[in-house]
TrEMBL record:
<keyword id="KW-1133">Transmembrane helix</keyword>
<feature type="transmembrane region" description="Helical">
    <location>
        <begin position="75"/>
        <end position="97"/>
    </location>
</feature>
<feature type="transmembrane region" description="Helical">
    <location>
        <begin position="12"/>
        <end position="38"/>
    </location>
</feature>
<keyword id="KW-0472">Membrane</keyword>
<feature type="transmembrane region" description="Helical">
    <location>
        <begin position="50"/>
        <end position="68"/>
    </location>
</feature>
<protein>
    <recommendedName>
        <fullName>DUF3021 domain-containing protein</fullName>
    </recommendedName>
</protein>
<feature type="transmembrane region" description="Helical">
    <location>
        <begin position="103"/>
        <end position="130"/>
    </location>
</feature>
<dbReference type="Pfam" id="PF11457">
    <property type="entry name" value="DUF3021"/>
</dbReference>
<dbReference type="InterPro" id="IPR021560">
    <property type="entry name" value="DUF3021"/>
</dbReference>
<keyword id="KW-0812">Transmembrane</keyword>
């Protein structure tokens, strides 16, 4: 194994996730445009899905900036990063029909629990990655500062 670049796996994962995000955005944008052109109930649903994707992306993405702070406890950062997106995602999922209300209370509860568990796992992974990036940048800045003095 080559130890000259031990972070190649992490870099590959980040680039892959970024590529998936870009492709998902392009696909959603295309669906939204086609939905506006199509009209009708199917077109309306495509537009709703596109708007939902944008809002959910912003709801999770914007608060994630909290991970760059070294001054807050990790549990506070996790709450700030996870709560707004989860609440907005759950409300949109309810509005758009992603939560299967027609199958009864247990389907609703199990879907919401699944949303919470998956969200927690994704946010924890993002938190580890963001925190690692912050530590790497801080180490780099400390080394630069030591060299200049």
């Amino acid at each position: 194994m080559n130890n000259s670049n031990p972070s190649i796996g992490k870099t590959l994962a980040i680039y892959t996730a970024t590529g998936i995000g870009i492709a998902s955005f392009i696909g959603s944008l295309f669906s939204g445009i086609v939905g506006m052109i199509m009209g009708g109930s199917t077109g309306s649903m495509l537009v709703k899905q596109f708007v939902a994707t944008l809002v959910i992306g912003i709801a999770f993405g914007a608060p994630a900036i909290i991970w760059v702070s070294d001054r807050l406890a990790t549990w506070i950062k996790l709450i700030v990063a996870i709560v707004p997106g989860t609440i907005i995602y759950t409300c949109i999922a309810w509005w758009i029909g992603w939560i299967p209300r027609e199958y009864g209370v247990w389907a609703v509860i199990s879907t919401i629990v699944m949303i919470l568990v998956v969200t927690l796992i994704i946010c924890a992974i993002c938190g580890v990655v963001f925190r690692s990036n912050v530590r790497t940048m801080n180490d780099y800045l400390k080394r630069r500062q030591q060299i200049s003095h």
